[in-house]
Amino acid sequence: MAQFFMGYKPGVGQVLKVLKYNDDDALTLANTAYDRYLFNSETQKLAYIRDQWTASFNYHNLSNGQVNDYEGTSSTGKYAAYTIKYGGSIHLTNTNIYARYNNIFKDISYVPMVEARIFEPDGRVYCAQRVLHWISDSLNNESAVIGTSQFGSAWFKPSMYGGTGDWIRRTNNSLSYMGLDSWLCWIGGAPAPNDANRPGVIATNSDGPVEKKVIVAYWDLPADSSPMTTYPHVQGLEALRWNRQEFILSRPGYSVDSSAGTRHRIIDSSLNLASIIMAGETTTIGTGGSVVLPVPYGFKLSPDAIVDMMIRLQGQPQYIPPHMLGGYVRNNYINVSYKVHEQSVEIFNESSEPVIVTYMVSNIDFSARSTGGREILYKGHDGQQYFIQIKKPGTSDPASRANDVMMDSRLPMIQIVKEGYIPFDQFSSGAAENTMLFGAQAHELNFENNGFIPFLKYSLVFSDRIMPPAMAIYYSYTSSGGPQYGPPSNHSSLARLENNKVKFWMNKGAWSAKFWSNSSGSERTDYYGDPLGIRYYVLGIARP
What is the largest CA-CA distance in the chain? Predict the structure, then answer.
């Protein structure tokens, strides 16, 4: 059984800790022993996954060429969907969904990290794809953009509506009521053609008249260049309060009362906590194979659980997004998806290569909490081990739903080991290694690892957009010159994660989009704005 400690630490105040080993001392164990903590309130910088939203859409029932607002009116709505149809408004061309920062995040000054999942009709979520976008596919003369991404949603600021060129300026006129220079999040799928970095549409005509579910949630962490809020300790504050009505643990420097109504709480029984219910690494998943990850004994997964992944090709380092370094372009592809079941997560590998997956599962639950219990701090035995739960007041003993649980000693808590913003002037061309496959500028940083599984999240920051990890590499082939790979676009980014270091690449000054121009009968290249830097978080997962 994990060791549970809730009490007073001299010089710090009230703390709550879950230690992996019973023989460790909760008051003296170093806060940097990330592999030995399952939870540590002194260093817990990860706040709630907040503002969860889900909806199901039959896109063929949406109005043609109009905006459908959700959770409010055109002035207050938090989300909007725009659909284009043709042929008498019967056939769907595409549908996009947009989240509106100004209407969702009135209490924070930064743009947060977004998690969005699009569920196919069979329940699968595609989480890593390498797609070939042809520019020219003629005998002895091929050119294409190879786009690789994991989850495709991106923040952007429209600078004009109905324009040409950059996809930000091509934002439809019908969305103009959302305002210029206001942050929107394009909730999308696989990368789109030409630039291979902007989000793809959620539904197209090929999907048919089917219903899809979308889940959106946000980490309370900056995706832009904003620094994280610091929380210096202040002695003498009531940081922990629990009774039959509530359980609250505030952040250092805040009392229970002064943190009310803010994001300065680590645990709050009034909020819907997305707990990390599963985290770890799979064995190798062969081509065409799958693996079933069972839920920890005594738990159930909500159908709205969000799975985050890093996909590594067998025999290669961990790249984010997953990266293929060679081979014939038509024969190399990545296609990884997952499906959530009540008692497991199933991961499918339809790639051309075997993969290993590092995963963490957030058990988001939109259902109501259970009723009938009396305990808040519940101690029990699940048939395999003793455990301690912190439950929302009034929920069943033990907790029977994901929305009941605020903490469980059997579950891992993800910790931020290292974080920051790296501006472009800290990147070096001398560290680039391979400018055609990785990028022209690189930056490497180290972190201390005493045994945890590292997990990386990052975003590529521009003045008018915040992109998820994605690569768009130019490919060409001629009978005289043979195949050529690279360079990546200036909207591309790549990271190589190892046990105690991570290296980032950008390609400032490169092309932005490539496509075939029917008017000129030739290939065309467009150039848009360059990135400013990378915002990153190295997370630590305690090994079982």
Answer: 78
